[in-house]
């Protein structure tokens, strides 16, 4: 069987246990398009909102640098270094922080948290195997990635063309207007391109989440042998389970089958008696541990009374319990509610 297992078709969906194990090892579905789109959108929004402050910081740094050219080097250094530090604090550091936060948020959304595992960075020989590389190149995922790249490039060209056509007029009119119009012309030319690019990344990202999830679940599919092996590990070997049930049944049918160990005795006067045992944390359901009829009825009832066992006259229920339940077995499900109500009513459960 072990020689044939690798050739089996993976036709069964991945079990919850296999998905949990994969997540523990850091293997989860992700969407790089969505992560990139959210990071670009966050960075763009930050730049738009902070642009006046960043422009002022740049202008201040340029002015200080220009003034520093007329003083000695030591004095220039004390002038320029604080200005450059202020520029980095106002521009680069916040932008990096926004991008990192956006990437973490996007990964938490796509992966339902951030799975931490060292398995994905452990060196493994199969990762450098030539055949595995060929399989990856010609895999279904690679095909989808190639098609996605073509679609995204085509849409990006459309957005670029539309932005150029939209901003061409203001750019052509800028020289005649003068320096004051350059800012407005640049905004008119590049803002549509920026917005279009951000929307393109976001629009491509949301469908990619579902696509990557489908590809991941397809990759995680199981063979019938895998599923059977997993069930054996979770539930135990069927032979062992059967042996445990037999030992349990034998233990009930042995020393414990005594009316004096009953929790309650159901009596059909002059006909039969059924001794039931129910102890919390010992028996999951009432067990028939004694049954008496005919000449033995009086003797067994006397033993039960001497042991202080509660005897309840309920001919119909006594007959059904004694008739439907093998000695040493749990009562049938059809009688469980009725017997449970009786035990609760008399304070026995």
From TrEMBL:
Q: Which InterPro entries match?
A: T3SS_substrate_exporter, T3SS_substrate_exporter_C
Report the GO terms under cellular component. plasma membrane
Keywords carried by this UniProt record: Membrane, Transmembrane, Transmembrane helix
Region called Disordered, residue ranges: 1-26
Extract one GO BP annotation from the record. Answer: protein secretion
* Keyword match Membrane: yes
> What Pfam family does this protein match (any one)?
Bac_export_2
Spell out where the chain crosses the membrane: 34-51, 83-106, 150-169, 189-211
Keyword Transmembrane helix attached: yes
Q: PANTHER family per the record? A: FLAGELLAR BIOSYNTHETIC PROTEIN FLHB
Record-stated family: Belongs to the type III secretion exporter family.
Please give the name of this protein.
Translocation protein in type III secretion system, RhcU
What is the species of this protein?
A: Aliidongia dinghuensis
């Amino acid at each position: 069987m072990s020689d044939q297992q690798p050739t089996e078709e993976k036709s069964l969906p991945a079990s919850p246990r296999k998905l949990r194990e994969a997540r523990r090892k850091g293997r989860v579905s992700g969407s790089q398009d969505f992560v990139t789109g959210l990071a670009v959108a966050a960075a763009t929004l930050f730049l738009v909102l902070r642009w006046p402050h960043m422009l002022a910081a740049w202008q201040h740094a340029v002015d200080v640098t220009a003034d520093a050219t007329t003083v000695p080097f030591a004095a220039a250094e004390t002038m320029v270094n604080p200005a450059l530090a202020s520029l980095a604090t106002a521009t680069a550091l916040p932008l990096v922080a926004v991008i990192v936060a956006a990437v973490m948020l996007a990964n938490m959304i796509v992966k339902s948290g951030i799975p931490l595992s060292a398995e994905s960075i452990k060196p493994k020989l199969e990762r450098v195997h030539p055949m595995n590389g060929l399989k990856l190149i010609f895999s279904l995922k690679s095909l989808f990635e190639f098609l996605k790249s073509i679609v995204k490039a085509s849409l990006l060209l459309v957005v670029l063309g539309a932005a150029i056509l939209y901003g061409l007029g203001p750019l052509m009119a800028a020289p005649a207007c003068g320096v004051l119009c350059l800012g407005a012309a640049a905004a008119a030319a590049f803002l549509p391109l920026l917005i279009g690019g951000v929307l393109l990344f976001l629009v491509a990202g949301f469908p990619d989440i579902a696509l990557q999830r489908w590809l991941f679940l397809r990759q995680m599919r199981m063979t019938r042998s895998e599923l059977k092996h997993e069930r054996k590990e979770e539930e135990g070997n069927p032979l062992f389970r059967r042996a445990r049930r037999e030992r349990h049944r034998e233990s009930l049918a042995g020393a414990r089958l005594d009316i004096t160990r009953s929790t309650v005795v159901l009596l059909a006067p002059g006909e039969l008696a059924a001794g039931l045992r129910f102890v919390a944390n010992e028996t999951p359901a009432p067990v028939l541990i004694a049954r008496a009829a005919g000449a033995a009825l009086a003797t067994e009832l006397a033993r039960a009374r001497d042991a202080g066992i509660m005897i309840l006259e309920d001919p119909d229920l006594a007959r059904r319990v004694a008739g439907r339940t093998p000695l040493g077995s749990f009562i049938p499900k059809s009688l469980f509610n009725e017997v449970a109500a009786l035990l609760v009513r008399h304070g026995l459960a």
